[in-house]
Amino acid sequence: MKKIFILNGSRRKEGNTATFISSITNKLKDCEIEIAHPQDFKVKACEGGEECFLKAGCVEKDDLPLLDEKILSSDLLILASPVYLHYMTGELKMILDKLSWWAHTLRLQGKPVVLLSTCSTNGQDTVIKPLGEIINFMGGNVIATANASMVPDQINNPEWLDSVSEEISSRITKSIIDYPKANIFTEKIFSASRISMLEQVSYFEDNDIKNGELEFWKSSGMLEFESFSEYLVSKYQNKES
């Protein structure tokens, strides 16, 4: 059974964002679905510093590893947020800040991702666009985005909600039975990041410094491939053959 993990950036478990999510998940069949909210995890604020990048993981002791596991073990990730001051919620941004090393390692490894937002009247672009850019850098493959507003009242419009939810649920169903894929954005990010990592190899080896991000590139095998697509085929398709 395919696993779908949903991180709703709102603390309101029965709010508009939850309603939008449910309209989609109710159409999904034969999937294991888990929905989480910020208050479900004790995640400390990011304090910065290079230790996290050298370790390739946050050095703070909190529930982040649990959240990591839920995201990485899922077959598809849904990120959702209401518009707060023309941006995603602060708690969702804080969680993403804590996962910032993923943006240097394409840690989502082609995982299909759906991005959702809700708003009163406007501002959805200032949530969906930055979320999309973050997910691309993290190596995720965004397969669908959508916003539901109160003016015009889309969230309480059954016809609109059903139409949008049907389209997104259809894309989800198709994506989770396929292999994780690259897109034009992740290909560009992979290419630039790989060049950067190759240039760092001699520096860290000569100075006897262990860099967790570089070690991930080595251990995953990404350094050996010219493109993200070729790497993902080797990782997923060849493993199944």
Automatic annotation (TrEMBL):
Keyword Flavoprotein on entry: yes
Domain named NADPH-dependent FMN reductase-like: residues: 3-145
Claim: Flavoprotein is one of the keywords in the record: yes
Record keywords, A-Z: Flavoprotein, FMN
Coiled coil location: none
Listed InterPro entries: Flavoprotein-like_sf, FMN_Rdtase-like_dom, ISF_SsuE-like
GO molecular function annotation: oxidoreductase activity
Record-given protein name: NAD(P)H-dependent oxidoreductase
Organismal lineage: Bacteria, Bacillati, Bacillota, Bacilli, Lactobacillales
